[in-house]
Amino acid sequence: MFTLQNLLQLLEKENRGWKNPTTMTRVILMALTDFNYQSDIASKVFSGVNQGRNIYFEIEQLVYDEGFETYLANVELRLRNQNFRNGNFDSLKMVEETYQLLKESTNLNQDIYQGLLQSYAKNKDNRPYLFLAECFYYSLACRHNKTVSYNTTTVSGIKTLQTMSAWGDNLVEVIYRENLPTKFWSIVEQMTTKEIAVFKTLAKLVVIDEDEEYYLYAPVTDAEIRLYNDFGVGNGEFLLMEEFGLINIGARMDNPVFVEEEPAGFQNDNLVFFFKTNSDAFEITYKSYTFTTVGSKLLEILAIETDDSFFEQLAKLFTKQHRDLPINFYLVPVEMMEEAESTEELEAYRLT
Fold first, then answer.
1. How many other C-beta atoms are found inside a 10 Å radius of the C-beta of residue 281?
2. Sign of the torsion formed by the C-alpha atoms of 142, 148, 150 and 156
3. Nearest to 35 by CA among 62, 7, 2, 1
4. Chain-centroid distance, C-alpha 332
5. For residue 99, what is the enclosing H or E element?
6. Residue 315 φ/ψ, nearest 5 degrees
7. 3 state SS of 152
């Protein structure tokens, strides 16, 4: 019989990570419904005492709210997340065992039987969790809905490492753990090793503003352009990143900063560059490039350490450009900045 209980018993045979059948069943039920069930319910589902009627109704509510294709895609993702790197069971073995159970089943109507056979043939190699998601769903549906038929859908694919070989291991975790929008994947899939290398170079040069937003200091003067060139970034690299939808250079931002007695400025991962005045307050402005939503997400995923040498030279250049103004400039390690109770304690880090 092709039932949820029998599928769970097959999974228990392949179990290599869950401590007991109840824990395993709770995880599978969560994958199917996105709801955390109590252990007693999970235990009864596994043993067959509880045939999962209420669980099926909750699934149908999700299908109604999300649409069937989105529901299956979400179950596929949750199953794969729960079995990251086959830590809990061998997915391919489970698919084959499920296929054998399917062939021997006598409780499915012909429509669902043929549909699941086609799903196996189509998904067994590249999308095993989609096949399993369908099997779990229809095992419940056939038990609690006598009129159910196979729903032929096109479920958008979850990205695989094979489609983005240029990234190597950089995106392994996010592929398995995050459900990112199509726009993100459409951009990163097109990036070759060249574009990836340019983005990683730029990631080392980012600065962080007082709102903890990441951006690039936009080079305007000849000295600023030379500084970027010294670190491998010229106009061609900026244009390439804009072409891929990772930064916005066409909309160069003005960054007005109010210079007053209280410190203001920006930082990187390790250094804080701030400035203040003992005179009347006034405003200065510098320019920046912002990252797009995709670029910002890549920065978060890659988490590349910023280059202190670049930041030090940028701070000294900024100081030189404003030396005629009554401003005191400081370049301070982050940990010292956090420990200091006043700027007077940081005079050793004052730039001249």
1. 11
2. negative
3. 62
4. 32
5. helix 91-104
6. -65, -40
7. coil
Amino acid at position 2, single letter? F
Q: Which two three-digit tokens encode residue 145? A: 């809905």
pTM over 0.90: no
Q: What residues contact 337, with CB distance under 8 A and at least 6 apart?
A: 272, 274, 346
Query: How far apart, in whole angstroms, are the C-alpha atoms of residue 80 and residue 92?
Result: 12
pLDDT in tens, the chain (352 residues): 999 999 999 999 999 999 999 999 999 999 999 899 999 999 999 988 888 889 999 999 999 998 999 899 889 988 988 887 788 999 999 999 999 999 999 999 999 999 999 999 998 987 899 999 999 999 999 999 989 999 987 776 555 555 566 787 777 666 655 667 767 877 888 888 999 999 999 999 999 988 788 999 999 999 999 999 999 999 999 999 999 999 998 777 888 888 999 999 999 999 999 999 999 999 999 999 999 999 999 999 899 999 999 999 999 999 999 999 999 999 999 998 888 888 888 888 898 7
Question: Which two tokens mark 179?
Answer: 């459900």
Tokens standing for residue 224: 């600023």
> 266 pairs with which residues across the strands?
273
Q: Which of 327, 3, 292 is nearest to 137 (CA)?
A: 3
State how far the Cα of 5 lies from the Cα of 8, in Å rounded to an integer: 5
Three-class secondary structure assignment of the chain: CCCHHHHHHHHHHCCCCCCCHHHHHHHHHHHHHCCCCCHHHHHHHHHCCCCCHHHHHHHHHHHHHHCHHHHHHHHHHHHHHHCHHHCCCCHHHHHHHHHHHHHHCCCCCHHHHHHHHHHHHHHCCCCHHHHHHHHHHHHHHHHHCCCCCCCCCCCCCCCCHHHHHHHCCCCHHHHHHCCCCHHHHHHHCCCCHHHHHHHHHHHCCCEECCCCCEEEECCCCHHHHHHHHHCCCCHHHHHHHHHCCCEEEEEEEEEEEEECCCCEEEECCCEEEEEECCCCCEEEEEEEEEECHHHHHHHHHHCCCCCHHHHHHHHHHHHHHCCCCCCEEEEEEHHHHHHCCCHHHHHHHEEC
Residue whose tokens read 């730039």: 351
